[in-house]
Structure formats: C-alpha cells, structure tokens
Amino acid sequence: MDFVEILRDRVPPVFFQDHIYVVGGTVRDFLLNKPIRDIDLVIVGRARTFLQRHRVPGRVIPLKPENDEFRIVLPNGTWIDFTGIRGPDLITDLEERDFTINSIAVSIDGRFWFDPTHGKQDLQARTLRTFRMRNLRADPLRLLRAFRFQAQLGFSIEHRTQQWISRLSSRLSEAAPERIHYELIELFSGHDVSLALKNMRTMGLLEVIFPELRAMAITDQRYETAQNLLDHTLHVVELLEGFLHNLEASPLSFAAAEIAQTMEQDHHQALLLMAALFHDIGKPPTRSVEPNGRTRFHGHERVGAEMVEALCKRLRFSNTEIRTLTFLVRHHMYPHHLAWDEHMTDRAVARYLRRMGEWAFPLILLAIADALASPPELIGIDRHVLLAKRLKDLKERQAQQGPKRILTGHDLQALGIPPGPIYRKILETIQDEYVAGSIRTKEQALQRAKELWNPLVVQSTEKNRTPSKN
Q: What is the tens place of the pLDDT at every residue in 80-119?
C-alpha cells in the first residue's frame, strides 16, 4: 500500500484539500517502513477556521488552542493531530520543527514533497539532527525527545546537535513534569534504552531529570574491587535490556514465555528498566565501610523505594506506575537473598511467588543482570537460575493442583479460631506449604492450622506487649 492509499484509508475526505499537508512522525514512519499509528496534518491557514467551516467526523479536542493545535479522534480510533502552520509559509514551519527527520511534508494527495532541512538524507544516514540551536531552545522538552527517538530508532545524534544539547541541558527542568513523564515512558519502551541513557549522562541530561543520581556518580561500592555506582547501574540496564530483547538466549530462556507475558502489558518494559536504573539509588545515603575496606548498604532497598516514590510524584507518574516502581526497587534484593540461601526450601520459593506475583521471573532477571554487572569475584548466577527453575516447577505443580486456596477463613472459623489478623498469617503459611507440596489434602491443611494457631497467638500476644521505642 502506497502513502496515498494509507491516507485515503484512514483520513476523512474532508481533509483532502490542496492546502493541507502530512508532516512529522507520519511521514517519518512511512519512510522508515514502520507502522503508522496516527496522522499529523498541517494546514496553510488556521486549523480553527477550517474546523468551524467543515463538518469533521469524530471528536475534536483542543490541545493548545492558543497555538492552533487540535486533535480529532475518529470513530475508527485513529487520531489526527491538526495544526495551522507556524510562520508565513510551509517551509518556515518545517524549518522550526525539532529534528530534520520530522521536518518533511507531503501534500495530502501525495504529489508534492517538501524537505527543506534534508530530513530524508538524515533518515538514510540514521542520524538525528536539529536544523539550528534555536529550535531546541524554543521547547526544552526537545532535548529529551532527542534521546527518546534515539532509544526508539537507534539513530546516532549528530555532533553539533550533541553540543547544543549539552549547552542547553539545564533548561530541561523548565519543561512541564507531565511532558517529561510521557517522553520517559516512550524512551524506556524503546529498543536502545541503554544507549540513550549513556548519551544522556554524557550530555548532562540524566542528572537534570534525576538529580538523585548525582550522588551515585561520585560513590563507589567496594567488594573485591571498587566500582562506581552509576557505571554499575547503567551496565545493569544494558544487560537487562539485552535479555528482554532476546529472551530465548537469556539465562532464563526456560521462562521466556512467562517473562514475555508480563512484558507485553502496557509500560511494563519501561517500568522494569526504570527499576534497573533506580535499584541502587538508596546506596549513597546508606553507605558504610567495614575495617577490611568493603562497603555495606544496609536497608538501601527500603530507602531507595522511598526516594523513587518521591521522584515519581515529582514527575507526575500515575499511582499504578509509582506502586510498581517502588515495589520493584524495594524487592530487588529478594531474589539475591533467596538464591544465596543454601537451604532454599519449596515453602520459601512458594512464598516468593505469592509475594512477587507476575514480577517473579522478571525480578530474577533483574537480579541476574545486577549480579553480572558486579565484580566477578563476588557472585555468580547459578543459584539465581536454580531459583527460577524451582519457581517454574512450582508454577507447573500449582497449575495442576486444582483449587487456588486449600483453606479459607470460614474453615478457620469452623475450627474455633477467632477472626483477626492471625487469619492472614495462618492462611498464607498453609498456602505456601500447599503450593510447595508438603500439604496435599484439606485434612492435612486443617491439622496444620491447629498446629499453627497457638504458637501464632503467643507470638502475636508477645509482640503486642513489647514496649514501644517511642
């Protein structure tokens, strides 16, 4: 299907007029043979006037009315971003855009192409280039957008454009947090995330967006050898990204289907890679040095989760995204601790599965990347792989066991156990043992509940009698 056929299939006939042009990402993606998601149109004249004079199907949403920007949501789900030209003519409009690859226009009938900044040439060279420095200064978010496109397309950034980004990097803080959040999600959903992050660090943007990383850039961790924390973190992201893009060749290839299922959900790749970037963010404030020179970071996962929550709120992440990111950072050491336990019991693995849910395997993959990015003298990954295999076996047994819960609160009531917080402790313990296979029947589960009740009651009572530290 050629370009005009694509347009006629998706754009209402009312827009097929000789003063309307297709621009921006629509043209770029067509030339790159990528799927076209939405349509960007520009009119020589006023978009508002056109919409007032013509009956346009779908819902019209003012984006920035003061800039003559509107979005039309068509009944078929297609979005058309429709704007009036900026400046006296189409060429001026194109020369003011962010990057040359987005500065190509085509008349809506496909007959006339306009490429004043040589965007086609840059597409062929796989290069991101800004026509002039003032284009970046006009909207500081474009500084971040350069790396979003780099992550999505794998393009290099032209040298002069790199220099301009470095000079203007501090101005990114002027962009609205909501817009930064959108660009970050798009960036971390790309295919060259680690490349973009490394270049953002070199050009000064990484610490402008995430000032919490500045302390990591000047902090070392020392086990057998010293290692800069930010270097370590970026290496973790690189390894994890490589695994995610080729799960069949990853250390957890036998769990590729489970990991892929989780990653297919909206923004899950982005959130996991962000968690990799933030997993050690709590290390600088918790750093201590032992007499032998080794560093310790007691409680860094808890402190890191608190820092990530504040960071996400500042950048207007959704509540769901905040919960997921803090959850992953808070528990990133869990697979390490369980893997290193010489007595890795089925019950402990079952408890891990229950607590980590859909993130159980991806979190192990993050831990493996963390281990491989640490000094090789410290740890290997054999125990992590063993943990994942044990987890895989447990899930398969769980799928064959039938009922999801072998006991309920009603069963505990029937045993005469009074309702209260103790129910959760008993039910979770029994469920873990059931999944692990040490409990096989309901009768065994009821007997185990009787055994657990008195010790748990005593433990709960003693805990309540403990004097407060306050």
A: 999 999 999 999 999 999 999 999 999 999 999 999 999 9
Q: What are phi and psi of 107, to 5 degrees?
A: -60, 145
Distance of CA 110 to the CA centre of its chain: 37
**Secondary structure (3-state) at 288:** strand
Contact 194, 241 (CB under 8 A): yes
For residues 227 and 359, membership in a common domain is answered with yes
The CATH number given to whatever domain includes residue 301 is: 1.10.3210
pTM of the predicted structure, to 2 decimals: 0.84
Examine the domain organization and report whether 202 and 223 are in the same domain: no
pLDDT reading at 469 higher than 50 = no
Residue type, 129: R
Q: Are residues 158 and 101 in the same domain?
A: no
Q: Which residue has the tokens 């967006």?
A: 209
Domain that holds residue 51: 3-125
Number of domains within the chain: 4
Nearest residue to 393 via CA among 404, 401, 382 = 401
437: helix, strand or coil: coil
**Model confidence at 165: pLDDT above 70:** yes
Q: Say yes or no: 246 and 364 in one domain.
A: yes
**Which residues have a Cβ under 8 Å from the Cβ of 222 and sit 6 or more positions away?**
289, 293, 294, 295
The residues that bridge with 228 in the sheet, in sequence order, are: 220
Pairing verdict, β 156-157 and 127-128: parallel
Does 335 fall in a domain? yes
Give the number of other Cβ atoms within 10 Å of residue 221's Cβ: 22
**What gap in Å lies between CA 141 and CA 196, rounded to an integer?**
15
Same domain, yes or no: 220 and 367: yes
Measured distance CA(79)–CA(59) in Å, rounded = 10
Amino acid present at 186? E
Of 433, 457, 456, 453, residue with least CA distance to 445: 433
State how far Cα 345 lies from the chain centre.
32
Give the relative orientation of helices 229-245 and 360-372 as an angle to the nearest 10 degrees.
130
The span from the CA of 9 to the CA of 273, in Å, is 37
Instruction: Identify whether the C-beta of residue 84 lies closer than 8 Å to the C-beta of residue 47.
Output: yes
Residues 253 and 384 in one domain: yes
Q: What is the DSSP letter of 254?
A: G
Q: How far apart are CA 181 and CA 274, in angstroms?
A: 12
Residue 304 confidence (pLDDT) above 90: yes
Q: 22 in helix, strand or coil?
A: strand
- Residue 269 and residue 149 share a domain: no
- pLDDT tens for 11-24 read 999 999 989 999 99
Task: List, in sequence order, every residue forming a beta bridge with 62; answer none if it has no partner.
Answer: 70
